[in-house]
C-alpha cells in the first residue's frame, strides 16, 4: 500500500514514472540543509519552492509543522497544544523536537529548507545540538538582505481582490483602473498589516531578533548574503551560485 492509503495498482503509471524519474534525478544531487532568513516582503516565498525543487529538499515551515503535529496528535503535538491552550509560547525544545521528527521523513532525505526558525541564538544553538546528534550540520544560511525603504514600497503598494486573491501593486503591477479588480470590477483592499506603521514595527522586531542569529551563523562561516532587492530571476541566479560552491 502507498502511504496515502491508495494501492500502488491504482496509481497511473505515468505518475509512478514521473516520481521515479524525479527520485533518480534527486539521487545525484548533493545533500543540502539550508536556513532562509529575511524580513517580510523580501522574496523568500518566491525563491523557496525553486530551491526545494532544484535540490529535492523538503520545506520545513515551523508554523505549519506545529499545526500538523497538533492535528496529528503526535506526542510533541499534544504538548504543543497544551502550551497553546494556556496561551504560552511553544518551547524551543518542542519546536526542535518537531523539526527532528520531520527530518526523518523520506521527502527530507536530501536535506531541508528551514523557514521561520531559528529566530533567536538560543534556538540556533538547540538546532545545532540536535543536528550534531544526527551527524549533520547546516550547510548554508541564506540572508535575504534588503533595505527597509524598498520593503516599505513593496509592501505598502500591495492591493488585493479579496474573493479571488488576485494581487496588484500600485507601482509594479497596477490594476487597469486604480482601486478596482481587472476581472470583476470589484473594489480592491489592502491587508491590515500592509501599512507603514505596522511594517515599521514588524521590521524593528525582525532586526532586533534576527541580527544576533545572522551574526551567529556568520561566525560559523555558513552565511551568504543575497541582494534581495534585485528582480526574482537575478536572485534565483545568485542563490544557485551560492549553493553550487
TrEMBL record:
Entry's Gene Ontology molecular function annotations: AMP kinase activity; ATP binding
Gene3D superfamilies: P-loop containing nucleotide triphosphate hydrolases (3.40.50.300)
InterPro entries: Adenyl_kin_sub, Adenylat/UMP-CMP_kin, Adenylat_kinase_CS, Adenylate_kinase_lid-dom, P-loop_NTPase
Keyword annotations from UniProtKB, A to Z: Kinase, Nucleotide-binding, Transferase
GO cellular component: cytoplasm; mitochondrion
Pfam families according to UniProt: ADK (PF00406), ADK_lid (PF05191)
Residue intervals of the Adenylate kinase active site lid domain: 158-193
Catalysed transformations (reactions): AMP + ATP = 2 ADP
UniProt EC number: 2.7.4.3
Known function: Catalyzes the reversible transfer of the terminal phosphate group between ATP and AMP. Plays an important role in cellular energy homeostasis and in adenine nucleotide metabolism.
Family that this chain belongs to: Belongs to the adenylate kinase family.
UniProt-listed NCBIfam families: adk, PRK00279.1-2, PRK00279.1-3
Subunit structure, as described in the record: Monomer.
The protein's name: adenylate kinase
Organism, as annotated: Juglans regia
Gene name of the record: LOC109019734
Amino acid at each position: 500500500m502507498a502511504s496515502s492509503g491508495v494501492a500502488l495498482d491504482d496509481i497511473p503509471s505515468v505518475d509512478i514514472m514521473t516520481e521515479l524519474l524525479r527520485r533518480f534525478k534527486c539521487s545525484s544531487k548533493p545533500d543540502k540543509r539550508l536556513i532562509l532568513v529575511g524580513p517580510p516582503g523580501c522574496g523568500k516565498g518566491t525563491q523557496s519552492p525553486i530551491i526545494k525543487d532544484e535540490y529535492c529538499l523538503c520545506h520545513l515551515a515551523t508554523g505549519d509543522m506545529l499545526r500538523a503535529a497538533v492535528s496529528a496528535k503526535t506526542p510533541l503535538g499534544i504538548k504543543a497544544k497544551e502550551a497553546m491552550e494556556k496561551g504560552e509560547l511553544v518551547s524551543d525544545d518542542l519546536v526542535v523536537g518537531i523539526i527532528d521528527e520531520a527530518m526523518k521523513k523520506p521527502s527530507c532525505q536530501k536535506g531541508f529548507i528551514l523557514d521561520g526558525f531559528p529566530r533567536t541564538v538560543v534556538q540556533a544553538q538547540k538546532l545545532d545540538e540536535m543536528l550534531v546528534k544526527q551527524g549533520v550540520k547546516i550547510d548554508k544560511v541564506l540572508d535575504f538582505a534588503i533595505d527597509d525603504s524598498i520593503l516599505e514600497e513593496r509592501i505598502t503598494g500591495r492591493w488585493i481582490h479579496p474573493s479571488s486573491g488576485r494581487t496588484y501593486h500600485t507601482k509594479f503591477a497596477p490594476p487597469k483602473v486604480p482601486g478596482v479588480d481587472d476581472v470583476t470590477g470589484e473594489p480592491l483592499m489592502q491587508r491590515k498589516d500592509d501599512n507603514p506603521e505596522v511594517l515599521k514595527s514588524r521590521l524593528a522586531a525582525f532586526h532586533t531578533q534576527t541580527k544576533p542569529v545572522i551574526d551567529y551563523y556568520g561566525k560559523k562561516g555558513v552565511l551568504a548574503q543575497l541582494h534581495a532587492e534585485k528582480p526574482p530571476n537575478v536572485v534565483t541566479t545568485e542563490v544557485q551560485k551560492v549553493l553550487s560552491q
